[in-house]
């Protein structure tokens, strides 16, 4: 979206949105003039608000009412008018205390979901790869012909993954046996995630062709992420009832039905992987009609720089974005630090 509003319209839009977020009531020109001492007459403010409505940034829900932000207005606010992230000492202290209190990563992710919901009164969602107790049992090869082999990985959970590797240079049967023995000697009976991190970081010091190393990395990535993309923790469904946007019982039923669909949630959280940072989807941008009254704030968490999953908040569009964005960013970074400490090499 182009930043085409003049400074006065930006100021009025920003204050209108901030006032609506605080009051949950439509905002009138009279309120803005009386409350914020902008130095412009109520008539001037009213004309500017009318222009902002015409341009799609504000909505007048009733003829005699003030105005509220549209999705476009919220998006402009988040992209161009947002103040710096807000963090208070309590959020920082509690986040560090909880995240650094657990050594079991699955329990840790559950506690992170509970923490986020507790501090925001929104729905929190954590997307994670199911890595616990998954061990690489063995690596095998099947020689197809001079320029191709099949790599087969078997895990402790019984999962078998295979991939055809096109070789840039032919490998003899004896050399292929040596490569298999070397890979198993180094990685056999090690946790999948640790094997993946070793390969992806180039810490292995293996005398193995790059074609095979790249294929092994891809297979491990598939095992760790693609097969587990629908695993989620959810917390805070009851807390969302505190917000006036979700007082309608039919709306709540619809919202809960969507939240209970893990595949829907996982696809929503996967948007965070696209930019590997804090991502905001507002209203219709979510592309889920049942969440059109919501905003979704997500970020990723990583281990040793490798993105592992994502966390997110689902709440009303009328949220304090500076605070929520700051908090989600904080949790993502502290969680990444703790998981790297627990599981990284």
Structure write-up:
The chain is of the alpha+beta class. The chain has 3 domains: 7-81, Orthogonal Bundle (Arc Repressor Mutant, subunit A), CATH 1.10.10; 89-129 and 229-343, Beta-Lactamase (2-Layer Sandwich), CATH 3.30.450; 135-224, Heat-inducible transcription repressor hrca homolog, domain 3 (Enolase-like, domain 1), CATH 3.30.390.60. It has 13 helices and 11 strands. The chain has a 5-stranded antiparallel beta sheet with strand order 8-3-11-10-9. The chain has a 4-stranded antiparallel beta sheet with strand order 6-5-4-7. Helix 2 crosses helix 3.
Helix content: 40-55%
CATH architecture field of the largest domain: 2-Layer Sandwich
Mean pLDDT level:
88
Total strands: the figure is 11
Spatial order of strands in the largest sheet = 8-3-11-10-9
Total domain count: 3
Radius of gyration: 26 Å
Distance separating the two termini: 42 Å
CATH topology title of the largest domain = Beta-Lactamase
Describe the main β-sheet briefly: 5 strands, antiparallel
Structural class determined from secondary elements: alpha+beta
Q: Which homologous superfamily in CATH is the superfamily of the largest domain?
A: GAF domain
Which consecutive residue ranges, at least 5 long each, have pLDDT under 50? none
Gross morphology: elongated
Count of DSSP H/I helices: 13
Strand content: 15-25%
Helix and strand run: HHHEEHHHEEEEHEHHEHHHEEEH
CATH class call of the largest domain = Alpha Beta
Query: Regarding quaternary structure, how should these chains be classified?
Result: single chain
